[in-house]
């Protein structure tokens, strides 16, 4: 397939003002009639996208169209001689049950009990009907659904309900009208046997809204938490951004068959059940947070994405980066800001930094793509959110709100660009933000270097900051970008010093902006050499290189009043401790472990924060520190450093703390309960490294007495990953207990795919034979193969290459079923060029064998080709 380029954008020759859709729904075959009112000022043939559609009839203004006037090739329907205002009517047939790609109209669940639904973003609508399938064509939709009433009692589409009734032969109909013009990727329908819960909501503007969450009958009791999260999100968006909901109904539907997390279709959000269903017996604390975050994210899209949409898919981060940022703010407000920031920065480093450092690197606004579904990446989402955060920080709370108000006002009902966004934020504040466009157009993580010089005589501290972004194949010359560096200076007792910059007092914390390749900043009236705390709150998505002495990081780790900054200092120190383990050094390892021993007994420290402080960077992040990556060695060294930490704290102290944290009875879902469980898990994991028998006995007892999934899965994880004898019984018990719950069973597969080292492969192969395993369900495929390939480096990267060959084989099979999922799982190969030579060659071989297979999808072949390059 040819590359599609941002530089080639042209406005559509034909627009559509109104769409009238009629669906005659059936599991094997559904018919779709579309009446499109077409608009154009230019004399050009009409070209509509369409894939996998059987064209039954075509007419213009009610008259069958002369065969000479239209041509239907593979993916395009071309019609000549159309006039402005004409109505084109097409009737097509599609096959929902045969649709394994889960894009367009498809069946979720079994033929007997399942339901029909749609997924259109990015380009699924062309699998439903002929249409200019691009986000800058905005139209008003009227949708009528017709189906057998017994088999499809519930009929839903986006928009407000506009009538329903009976039809002959046991059929019925329902109509929905959406008054807000929208791009076709936001179209959705759902039809089948579903249960609901409802809640009444009144917006700040006084509109009465019916909130309805739908699921299959056996899961409806697990929808209440999502309903609360939805209500909180709606209220929050009114308060934080002045944005209210704009239809009379808001439907949310859960499905177990979904390619991603959820989808923000106008008025009819569709969710992967993993991000909607929640109950203490089957849902972990982290998953509860995930539900709250994704419900909020999809809801927030109603303004950042739907009311203001994207001109083209290159602008994807306009809605995604912004909406991730809005969700981060919301989750911080609902929970703990520093824990949320820790989680988000950890995710950025684990998922986005490696992406940005390898062959899949691309700018937040890519310059070209072949398959757009491959660009729903950590870069577009998470780095995109970091860029919005920088802009928000630059403008301050009020300035950012002013800018967002302007953005929504100027672009409501439009398909906008990133320039529109920066322009509105800047115009509302009288600031030129266009220099930040450089961040959007350039791939790679900038390196920020910091050097400090203290002049005792002058009582002056000079901080010199410089930046450098390593060249990449498509961008050999990288430019300087504006880097806001939030900073503080600490004295040797761990107190923050008052800052005087350029003759002005600026409190104890300030932001300097590095807007060139190098700059110096001079602080006056500094009584002795300070310890700088840089990039506070992770004020820019960069890699900081600062020649700290381990003792300086330890000082920040123990004294910084801000939880996030403490954690950050601890992460840097832990990375140095890891280097010590590799090279036989001791300074950082000692500083890290003794600082944490001190914090372990510090009264009043939040238990969840302590748990995070006690967790060193993960194996993927640590691999960035090795020249020739050996994942087995990294796993081993990380264990060594954690064992050292466990010894320094002491087995007895760990066991005592574990017992203190024990709380019988049903799990408390408040912050204190979650914090307790988080720390207890961490303590148990550390104990397992220094007193294995005690830890396994405790884990076994915890497994058996646990009344919630968080504690049960934590215990199971310690047993399974530790190779404990007790693991076998616990796994069998878990399976019996949760056999009917697909989301719990996903965890059963995933925990076993995490067994470290050589044994993982055999376990994965055995689990593939389990009757509950199927490649057809994305959650199940991700739970087993995704966890193995992307979440278990020492298991996947076997020196004999068998992990690579297994994945490549499965990708080929999966590709013929569901190309989006195959392409996503294939990104596990990213970074293979940096492996040590033996593994590198094995990975290259597996990848090039895969690349050579005939008939790969555009999705998978693009990823494989990029990763290989
Ligand atoms: N916008 C969807 C993602 C669609 C992915 C298409 N491959 C969910 C979200 O980001 O909210
Ligand atoms: Zn989104």
List the helices and strands and how they pair.
Layout lengths: L3 E2 L9 E10 L5 E10 L6 E4 L4 E7 L2 E2 L5 E3 L3 E4 L7 E8 L9 E5 L6 E5 L19 E10 L5 E4 L2 E7 L4 E12 L6 E4 L2 E8 L5 E8 L8 H18 L7 E7 L6 E2 L4 E5 L12 H16 L7 E3 L5 H19 L2 H21 L10 E2 L8 H34 L2 E3 L1 H10 L9 H5 L5 E9 L4 E9 L14 E8 L9 E2 L2 E2 L4 E5 L3 E6 L7 E4 L8 E4 L3 H10 L3 H21 L3 H14 L6 H7 L5 H5 L7 H19 L1 H11 L9 H20 L1 H14 L3 H13 L5 H12 L3 H12 L5 H10 L9 H14 L1 H4 L5 H16 L1 H8 L10 H15 L6 H11 L1
Helix pairs in contact: 1-2, 2-3, 3-4, 3-5, 4-5, 4-9, 5-6, 8-9, 8-10, 9-10, 9-13, 10-13, 11-15, 13-15, 14-15, 15-16, 15-17, 16-17, 18-19, 19-21, 23-24, 23-25, 24-26, 25-26
The chain binds (3S)-3,7-diaminoheptanoic acid and zinc ion.
Zinc ion binds next to helix 3.
How is this structure best summarized?
One of its GO terms (molecular function) is alanyl aminopeptidase activity. With 869 residues, this protein is of the alpha+beta class.
Q: Assembly state here?
A: single chain
Give me the Rg, rounded: 28 Å
Fraction of residues in helices?
40-55%
Domain tally: 4
Name given to the CATH architecture of the largest domain: Sandwich
Bound ligand species: (3S)-3,7-diaminoheptanoic acid, zinc ion
Shape: globular
Strand order of the largest sheet: 6-5-9-3-2-12-15-14
Low-confidence regions: none
Main sheet overview: 8 strands, mixed
Q: Tell me the structural class.
A: alpha+beta
CATH-assigned homologous superfamily of the largest domain: tricorn interacting facor f3 domain
Number of strands: 33
Estimate what percentage of residues fall within beta strands: 15-25%
- CATH third-tier fold name of the largest domain: Immunoglobulin-like
CATH class of the largest domain reads Mainly Beta
- Averaged pLDDT: 98
- Helical stretch count? 26
Tell me the span between the first and last alpha carbons: 17 Å
Keywords: Aminopeptidase, Hydrolase, Metal-binding, Metalloprotease, Protease, Zinc
Cofactor: Zn(2+)
InterPro entries: Aminopeptidase_N-like_N (IPR045357), Aminopeptidase_N-like_N_sf (IPR042097), PepN_Ig-like_sf (IPR038438), Peptidase_M1 (IPR001930), Peptidase_M1_dom (IPR014782), Peptidase_M1_pepN (IPR012779), Peptidase_M1_pepN_C (IPR024601), Peptidase_M1_pepN_C_sf (IPR037144)
GO molecular function: alanyl aminopeptidase activity; metallopeptidase activity; zinc ion binding
